Structure prediction request, 177 residues.
Amino acid sequence: MADIAAAKRYAQAAFGIARDTNTIEAWRADLADIAAVLTESSAAAVFADGRIPLERRLALVERALDIGPQQLNLARLLVSKGRAPDAGAVSQAFNTLADEHAGIEHATLTSAVPLTQDQVRAFEQRLSTSLGKHVQATAITNPAILGGVVIRVGDHIVDGSIRTRLRQLRRQLEGAR
Prediction:
């Protein structure tokens, strides 16, 4: 399990460097590569195994990754500190910081039936206008909501599902007895 607090600290340090050198997108791509190699590749277990000499693990990192020198230093640091399994969380935390910096907000649209691309774009435009940020939406299908849409942006939820409306109606009718 990833140490989220540590991952955020590594991401904040990396983001500070990326912002100062105007290389945020390069860092974003390289951190995705680091996460893939350190946590998802067939060699992931080797990077996390403290029984294998550190020099061998670091040499493998250098051979496996074709990234910038500062990013490679971060990958080496993660391996040497026993944080290779946290690489995915570092990448995610970095992406969150980069999106905040760029004024990008992510939304999840949950509907009972699949939304078309045009519908998703329409939601993105309306949310962007109302929030004053660029919104990128992801559509999810969940038949349990029966109809309507549940919109989640950050910690905020707008529940326009028929399921919730029926629950509210039931409470109102039960209260009227």
User: Anything to note?
Assistant: The longest strand covers residues 104-111. The CA atoms of residues 138 and 163 lie 21 Å apart. The chain has two domains: 4-100, 103-175. The mean pLDDT is 91.
